Each structure stands twice: as C-alpha cells, then as structure tokens.
Amino acid sequence: LISEVAEKNNQTVFIVGGYVRDLLMHRKAPTDIDFVTEGNGIDLAKAVAHEINSKLKVSVFKNYGTAMFKHEGLDLEFVGARKESYAEDSRKPSVEIGTLEDDQKRRDFTINALAISLNKENFGELIDPFDGILDIKKRILRTPLEPSQTYSDDPLRMMRAIRFASTLNFKIEERSLASIKSEVERIRIVSMERIMVEFNKIMLSEKPSVGLKLMEQTGILHLIIPELTALKGIEEVEGQTHKDNFWHTLEVVDNICENTDNLWLRWAALLHDIGKAPTKKFMEGNGWTFHGHEFLGSKMVKNLFYRLKLPLGTDMKYVQKLVKLSSRPIALIDDGTSDAALRRLLFDAGEDLEDLFILNKADITTKNSSKQAKFKKNFEYVALKIKE
Ligand code: CTP
User: Fold this and answer.
1) pTM summary value
2) How many angstroms separate the alpha carbon of residue 312 from the centre of ligand 1?
C-alpha cells in the first residue's frame, strides 16, 4: 500500500534504520518502522494514512520534516531524505531535500543506515552503501562518515554507540572509540532527558556492566554520574586495603540483572554504594570504615535523580529505601500477596518483626538470609544479595 501511494505521488520510499537492522539480526518484533522518501515525508505520511483510514490521526513535526501515525500497534514514521548537517551548537537540523544516500550517510551507524526499497523497479532490494551488513556480521559499530563528523552532528550518538554495544553485544570501532574519548565534553550540549533514555536502555540490557565500563573508559560516566567514578580505586594505609567499590558495584548490578527486569531495582543496585566515597575513613585499629554510608547514599539519590531528570516520585523513594537498606540481603516477592499476609508468614517463620521492612507490596527484607529458604515454599521469589 505504501509503495502504491508513493508511486501515485511520484515519490520514492524506503524502509530504513532499526527495523532493517533488527530484521537482518532476527531480533525482537518491531514497535516502530521508519520510512524515508526522496520528497516530502509529511505529505507521504498523510497520503498513506488517508488511504488506510481517512480518520487516522497523523502527528506532524514540521521542524524536522517528519510525520507519524499508529497502525496495527506499530508507530509508522515518515521523513523526507535530508542532506544537511546539524548546526554546530544545537541538534536542530536545517532541512534540505536530499537523496536516499544523503540520508543514509547522515545516520549514526552503518548498521542503522541500511535501507529496503519499496519502489516498483527494485522492490525489496537491500541498499547498503556503507557495508552495514558486513558490520552486522562482524558485530561492529562504525559510523558512515568520519566519526568526529557523525558525533558532532549529534553528540547523543556517543551514548547510542555505548547503548548498542551493550544491548546488541557489538564492539565500537577503534576510531570511533578514540573520537568519543577525545571529544567527550560534547555530551554536555545534549539534554539530560535524551541521555537518560539511552542510559536506561543500558540499565535494562542483559549485562549493563558492558555499557557502564565503556561509559567509564570514555569519560562519559564521570561527566554525568561522578558519584560513581568516585568509587573507583583502592587505597592502602598500614598495609590495609578496601575493595574497589566501583568494580564491586558493576558486579552487583550484573548479578541483580540476572534476577529482575525492574529498572528501579537495577538503579538501586547501581547506587547502593554511592555514600561510600564521602564517608570513607581509615580508623586506627578498625581499618577502613564507611560509617553511615547507607543514609548518606540515600540522600545522595535525591540530588542525583534531580540532576539526571529522573522521576522524583515513588520510583525515587523506592531506590532511596533500597539504598538505605542495602547492607541487608533482600528478598523480592512478587506474587501480589498483601503486606498483612507477608507479616503473618514472617511471624510464623519466626522472624523478628523489628527487623522486617516492607519496602513496597512486592519486597521484603530480612536480616537473616537463612530464613528466606522458608519463604521459598510459599512464594515465588528471587533472592537478591546486595552485600556478600
Ligand atoms: N538515528 C540517528 N541518530 C540519532 C538517532 C537516530 O542517526 N541520534 C537514526 C538511526 O538510523 C536509527 C533511526 O534514526 O536507526 C531510528 O532511531 P531510533 O528509533 O532512536 O533507534 P533504532 O535504531 O530504531 O533502535 P531502537 O528501536 O532499538 O531504539
């Protein structure tokens, strides 16, 4: 249908971007499909939508020359091929009509610059001017243009490189990595909201430590969450050392991710030790201490969420609570059982109620991890050990 409407309008049309990549990689079912036309994207979107159903609502983003509508649970987005570069100091592009190749060239990575033709003369043909298919095979993230050009066009792409490396298990090409490292400061012009979209995709990946390590290596992590990089390193006084709390944090995050998809629980794991850098002291006779780090850490979560433009409501309070309780083993119970029933069960199990914290409906903590074995009989649960 799209093909026919485009032909009637005398326009070309191609599928581009993530949909083609995921199709070739046999990944998840798509939620959105991007179409490029060498012509006016908004006109094409309207014409296609009208053909499907004359009442279909089309959202138009005039500044970007894009328009989209929903159809059968999919977001269909149309854009006119563009030639432009982004202006130096903003991500607002100046729009100038270009060819498909112009459009492919200004995309972030070769694996996202693949197109499938929907035009009569070569319907279904895969158009790959930058060897994106080879890069999929080699599992490598490479920019179609010089890395510094692609990243200065939109510095968020530095985060996207790390996000794709983490979620797709790809390597960032050496030249690209070097460019990110040397021009990392550019990330400052990107809004925190956009950075956090990518960051949360890293947090929801199978092994967030991959992305977090890359963020640390490139310097991005230090720019956005210095509280975490402050945990790096081991000090020694009188022959006594403490563990490197940054690497420990990465281990805890990966462990938790094996057990839960809950984004905020994952965030709690990431932040559970942030109070340790400012509370670290060496005490004669006692060695290294981090007295009160859980309480300080929990306060720091608030500042951090504010600065990172993360939600400040119940999700943040949940993370704060978990950080405060992080020295205790936590059992996550997620079968909808009411708090009262949980309390009764814990009581029956001989748990001292003083030591019980109902974190929210789904979670309990208990001081004594051996007691958790008893809950297992009655509840579906995942034990999350925050501290060894
Ligand atoms: N794109 C880009 N630069 C950006 C963002 C997006 O070049 N900063 C291009 C890429 O070609 C990308 C397409 O726009 O494939 C769509 O972007 P988006 O929907 O954000 O990502 P997807 O690649 O579709 O990946 P996913 O759906 O997994 O997030």
Assistant:
1) 0.82
2) 28
Best residue among 107, 135, 142, 170 to mutate for probing ligand 1, ranked by most atoms within 8 Å of CB: 107
Calpha distance 322→45 (Å, rounded): 47
- List phi, psi (to 5°) of 74: -110, 145
**Distance from chain centroid for Cα 10:** 39
Which of 213, 205, 190 lies closest to 308 in space, CA to CA? 190
Number of other CB atoms surrounding residue 4 within 10 Å:
12
Q: For 78-126, how does the pLDDT look when each residue is reduced to its tens digit (9 = 90+)?
A: 999 987 655 445 555 555 678 999 999 999 999 999 999 999 999 999 9
CA-17 nearest atom, ligand 1: 15
Which residue ranges have their beta carbon within 6 Å of ligand 1?
A: 17-18, 34, 107-108, 112, 154, 156-157, 160
Q: Distance between terminal CA atoms of the chain? A: 59
Which residue CA neighbors atom 3 of ligand 1 most closely? 108
AA identity, residue 299: K
CA of 108 to the centre of ligand 1 (A): 8
Nearest CA to ligand 1 atom 28: 18
How far does the centroid of ligand 1 lie from the alpha carbon of residue 164, in Å? 10
Do the beta carbons of residue 135 and residue 173 sit within 8 Å? no
| pLDDT score, position 380 | 27
Prediction ipTM score: 0.96
Q: Sign of torsion, CA 106 108 114 119?
A: negative
Cβ–Cβ < 8 Å for 124, 173: no
- Helix orientation angle between 263-271 and 293-307, rounded to the nearest 10 degrees: 120
CA distance 145 to 175: 11
Low-confidence ranges of the chain (pLDDT < 50): 87-88, 328-335, 346-368, 370-388
